[in-house]
Write a structure and sequence with these properties.
Structural class: alpha+beta
Strand content: 15-25%
Largest sheet: 4 strands, mixed
Number of helices: 13
Shape: elongated
Number of strands: 10
Radius of gyration: 25 Å
Strand order of the largest sheet: 4-3-5-6
Order of helices and strands: HEEEHEHHHEEHHHEHHEHEHHE
Length: about 375
């Protein structure tokens, strides 16, 4: 049952998102037949440029183990041999395939030999590089330091380009066709596997994909979706099941416009600087206003918000938790009509507002500091 639920959630998520350019590419398989990447729509992909006479060639064994472990969950590895790095992929694609079968018993698909850099680079890899540039070798790794030294001697500015640097560079593509990560050949396979797991599990992939969205399409969210998001919110845990929240979902576009006029009069310079300004809630077409008791409930309200934001992400929607508009609404008497429309119960106060809508941007994740996590064993 759990697998069925995960598959359904992934399917809904795929339907909710827009088509991605990666599915427009065609490649040749190992017998010269054209294959459309749209055949892999809905699957998590690891796209790799490989070589059979490289120091990293043993990674074939690790890749096959990864493939066997997760292919049943919708994971595919697409292998593209490339002879551009030290001419370490000699021979025809048929000879390469026979070698890989004999030495590593690979089962994932291999495609025709390609170039990944230069004038004759395969369009697929040109696109992949445009989505995820070179992130640098791990200089704490002996091989990574060796590769960096070798390439820096050839070109001191080699790291500034997005070109593929060596064999076994890997690109991870989500179920909905987004290029999620790029792994240089020195990246440990455990790191690659962790990222694959994140994408295969719909809950984890929603967590990892969610960003604060500050640009929205001019398209209101359907009432049915807002209802479902609210239901996910109120199913968040709370202390002693107290559920110390009141939720008001604003669908009235006129109400948002009217209070925005008040904001514009109070902040003309700020509005003037923002050339794309439409409303005071990051231009979101809908709002989720969460109220808490004046004497507490903040922790529970935080868990409520996270449930709603992740539910929205899984449905192809963007969110942003806003505090500035709350301060403005509480401080400006001319905006009182907005709070009155929310019908906040006595003893409660507006805690935060979630801007919600269809995103008009795809912001990159900001770095997270993993050193803040300590394991006590």
């Amino acid at each position: 049952m759990k697998k069925i639920i995960f598959a359904f959630m992934a399917f809904v998520s795929a339907l909710a998102t827009t088509a991605q350019p990666i599915y427009d590419f065609q490649v040749k398989d190992d017998v010269g037949q054209k294959v459309s990447l749209s055949d892999y729509r809905g699957k998590v992909l690891l796209i790799v440029n490989t070589a059979t006479r490289c120091g990293f060639t043993p990674q074939y064994k690790e890749l096959e183990a990864l493939y066997e472990k997760y292919t049943k969950d919708g994971f595919e590895i697409l292998d593209f041999p490339c002879n551009q790095f030290g001419q370490q992929a000699p021979g025809t694609i048929q000879e390469i395939h026979e070698y890989c079968m004999a030495n590593f018993d690979i089962r994932f698909p291999q495609f025709d030999k390609i170039d990944v850099n230069g004038a004759d680079a395969a369009p697929l890899f040109t696109y992949l590089k445009s989505q995820k540039g070179f992130g640098g070798f791990d200089l704490n790794d002996k091989t990574g330091k060796l590769l960096d030294d070798m390439m820096r001697k050839r070109d001191a500015k080699y790291a500034e380009s997005s070109d593929i640097k060596w064999n076994f560079t890997k690109f991870l593509v989500s179920r909905d066709g987004r290029v999620i990560s790029r792994f240089e050949p020195t990246a440990p396979m455990s790191e690659v596997e962790s990222a694959v797991q994140m994408q295969l599990n719909p809950v984890l992939s929603s967590i990892m994909a969610r960003r604060s969205v500050r640009k929205y399409l001019d398209k209101p969210v359907e009432h049915e979706k807002l209802e479902l998001i609210a239901k996910c919110g109120i199913n968040a845990p709370s202390g002693m099941n107290g559920q110390p929240w009141q939720i008001r979902i604003v669908e009235d576009q006129n109400l948002i416009s009217d209070v925005t006029e008040v904001y514009k009069k109070a902040n003309p310079a700020q509005v003037e600087r923002d050339k794309g300004f439409k409303n005071m809630f990051r231009n979101a077409p809908n709002l989720i206003c969460v109220c808490t008791p004046a004497n507490g409930g903040l922790l529970d309200a935080g868990m409520l918000a996270e449930n709603m934001m992740l539910a929205a992400q899984s449905m192809g929607l963007g969110t942003c938790c806003l505090g500035g508009p709350v301060r403005f609404l509480n401080a400006n008497a001319d905006a009182r009509f907005f709070l009155d429309r929310l019908d906040i119960p006595e003893g409660y106060q507006l805690c935060y507002i979630l801007a919600i809508g269809y995103p008009d941007e795809s912001p990159e994740a900001k770095p997270r500091d993993a050193s803040k996590v300590k394991y006590i064993k």
